Amino acid sequence: MSVTWDESKHPRDKIGRWTAAGGEASGDQAQSPDEYSDEDQAKHRAAMSKIAAARDTINDAAEQIKAKMAELAQLQKTLEKQVAAIEAAHEKVAEIADEYGLDYETADDDFNSAASDLASEIENTLDSLKESHKQLKKHA
Q1: Domain spans of the chain?
Q2: pTM, two decimal places
Q3: Helix (H, G, I), strand (E, B) or coil at 104
């Protein structure tokens, strides 16, 4: 047995919603949430509350990230300063060794290189985080 759809038995209003009244009798589209049914108004308010709460949480997280960014910037400066201090100390040791005709080979080249790379990565990360944070604040 095959059933065919008879649109005339399933009327819709102007915007395509099902209606028992049929055709245009059910009214126009709502102009604001105040015109929603009580149940839909409650759903709307609940959803909007969730949006507001999520936005607040995101803004709080963004502020925490901003504080961590300041900490990272300080750590980057510390790394750069200490790498420079190690390099200066190695130069001093090399000068003293040279006075005695000795060759001084540092074992810290890989360490210093890794520390410098880390400082550079922190700088790149901070640049990216700053831009993302700026965009978030722009749209808040």
Answers
A1: 33-139
A2: 0.60
A3: coil
39 in Cβ contact with 28 (< 8 Å): no
CA atoms within 13 A on the CB side of 79: 19
In contact, 86 and 39? CB cutoff 8 Å: no
Q: Please report, in tens digits, the pLDDT of each residue of the chain (140 residues total).
A: 556 766 666 676 666 666 665 444 445 566 677 788 888 889 999 999 999 999 999 999 999 999 999 999 999 999 999 999 999 999 999 999 999 999 988 877 888 889 999 999 999 999 999 999 888 888 87
Q: Which of 133, 135, 137 is nearest to 66 (CA)?
A: 133
Q: How far apart are CA 47 and CA 41, in angstroms?
A: 10
